[in-house]
């Protein structure tokens, strides 16, 4: 094992209370629903199980938004880790933030048309390349923090949002960033793990994925900007 072997577990937040189906993006004060709280508890319990079985989880970072702070709370409770806010793992910026999710209404309004011209960038929000870059920096830094605290083999947790996590994964796997949103493998409270044999090497990390909260997914509506 390399002296800089490290794992960074990137967890998505749980379900948000959003009965009006707003694209909430970076808007403040969108809280986890009761079901979302159960989801993140299940993921925190998975981290606790890993820790009890020998995983050296020593660092916790999170997006500064309400829903990610609430998602990190049970990890702090069960593992005793202080949460460190990191702006680099925040939700992607989105022109449609604050609007109802209604495709027909969006297409009817001419003011939205310039933001729909280029889905490969995308033209409606933060470029995919920018998301991938900031996430890669934050993941590497979380790994460095884990190494500083726990040495080789240490592990970190980062709590973030679906699209930035998916961009980080596609970039790490060397895949094109433009994609069909329906193909994202990044469900609520899921854990995408980046394992670096050598954190400072240009070698791509190994990627693994798990869904501790899968039993709670039935009937859940997932929206963009989450």
From TrEMBL:
Annotated GO MF terms: phosphatase activity
Stored InterPro entries: His_Pase_superF_clade-1, His_PPase_superfam, PGM_Phosphatase
GO cellular component: cytoplasm
Name under which the protein is recorded: Histidine phosphatase family protein
Organism, scientific name: Rothia amarae
Lineage: Bacteria, Bacillati, Actinomycetota, Actinomycetes, Micrococcales
């Amino acid at each position: 094992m390399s002296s800089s072997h490290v794992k960074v577990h990137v967890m998505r937040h749980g379900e948000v209370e959003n009965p009006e189906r707003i694209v909430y993006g970076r808007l403040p004060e969108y809280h986890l629903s009761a079901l979302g709280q159960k989801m993140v508890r299940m993921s925190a319990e998975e981290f606790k199980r890993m820790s009890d079985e020998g995983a050296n989880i020593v660092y916790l970072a999170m997006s500064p938004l309400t829903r990610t702070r609430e998602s990190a709370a049970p990890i702090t409770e069960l593992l005793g880790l202080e949460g460190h806010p990191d702006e680099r793992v925040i939700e992607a910026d989105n022109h449609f933030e604050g609007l109802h999710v209604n495709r027909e209404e969006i297409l009817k309004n001419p003011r939205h048309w310039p933001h729909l011209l280029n889905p490969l960038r995308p033209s409606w929000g933060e470029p995919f390349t920018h998301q991938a870059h900031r996430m890669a920096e934050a993941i590497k830094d979380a790994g460095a923090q884990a190494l500083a605290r726990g040495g080789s083999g240490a592990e970190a947790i980062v709590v973030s949002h679906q699209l930035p996590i998916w961009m980080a994964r596609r970039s790490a796997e060397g895949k094109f960033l433009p994609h069909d949103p329906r193909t994202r493998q990044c469900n609520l409270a899921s854990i995408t793990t980046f394992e670096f044999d050598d954190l400072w090497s240009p070698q791509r990390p190994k990627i693994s994925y798990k869904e501790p909260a899968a039993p709670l997914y039935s009937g859940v509506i997932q929206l963009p900007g989450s």
